[in-house]
Amino acid sequence: MPGLAAQIERYSVVIAIGDVAVRLNTIDADFLQLLHKRYAGFVSAEAQAEFDFDVELLPSTFRSPDVDLSVTLRSGRWVLDRGDFFAEWEPVARRGIIRQTANPYSIDAVLRIMHTLVLAKQGGFLLHSASAIRNGKAFLFAGVSGAGKTTISRLAPMDATLLTDEISYVRKRDKDKDYVAFGTPFTGELAKLGENCSAPVAALFLLAQGAENRIEPVAAAEAGRGLLANMLFFAEDQELVHWAFKAACDFVDRVPVYRLTFVPDARVWELIT
Amino acid sequence: MSKKLYVARCPRIAARKLGEETLVMAAQGSTLFTLNPTATILWQAADGVTALGDIVERHICSEFEVNLEEAIRDAEAMAQDLARHGILVISEEPIASRNSPAQEQRR
Q1: Are B27 and A238 in contact (CB < 8 Å)?
Q2: Is the N end or the C end of chain B the one with fewer CB atoms within 10 Å?
Q3: Which residues, including other chains, have CB under 8 Å from residue A68's CB and lie 6 or more apart?
Q4: Do A225 and B34 touch (CB under 8 A)?
């Protein structure tokens, strides 16, 4: 009987970060536009995606944004809950739902969490660090807020390609066991999306600001501590904690880690080649 | 020292020797500990069936020039400290093997 049932249009966008493609489905054309704008440069033309999420938009009176994040595994399903969103995701089925208001911050948080969960078992991780490619090699600059991630990004020379000023994406390449850093759309103070490209990781620098530019090697255990302190990690799941710990230890076994003390001027990049 | 003590690594602990030190992470709370070289020796030898005194004699006194009794006292204090943090179990009896071997790798 025509006229009794209206067909609801469904829109999709595939966002590929770190070569992991996630399809987001919505019935809201304005939200689709928002996603295209927010993840410009990371929107994939490929129809195929590893993971599928239906995004259900809720009224602005959703819940208090002050509710703390919890990430738990319940009956084989990840449940991500924070004041501004609720998401469920079945890793086996590779499908999930996200309930949130129409804003880019909630979906950003869900994507970051989802990627940390995916990467953990593969030996990869997201890291609070700026990263850039120079001479075909990726360099990571890790540190807490105020350590200098934005500053080192802002000082990057023309021949450096900025991958991110805030959250680096590191994957282990199975073939030769080395690590690759990818660009991310996760921005910090610079508010500039990283370039969507990748390169093998040549070094991790633990940032410190000081009176002179200096690079010093870091002992293995200190390197591990420094890396773990800056890794994004959300779940209290025992198995996942072990995977994340192993990922960090494997990384510092393989990649040189240094302390980079620097004064905020462009000459610091003379040390990074 | 009156009684023999036995020490075993706690299950649900992730550990890795990096250089001369060992990083240990408890799954609960994701708490990270760093064991110094001496604690690392103790940790590696804590199989639950070798008495702490024997571990000290075999692995610590042979490595460092220390008096055995003094070294055992220090090791007991260290083991108590690790036990308080939930990463080592101490018993006056041998501890049944219920641990999966800690991940260890030399750098």
Answers
A1: yes
A2: N
A3: A82, A83
A4: yes
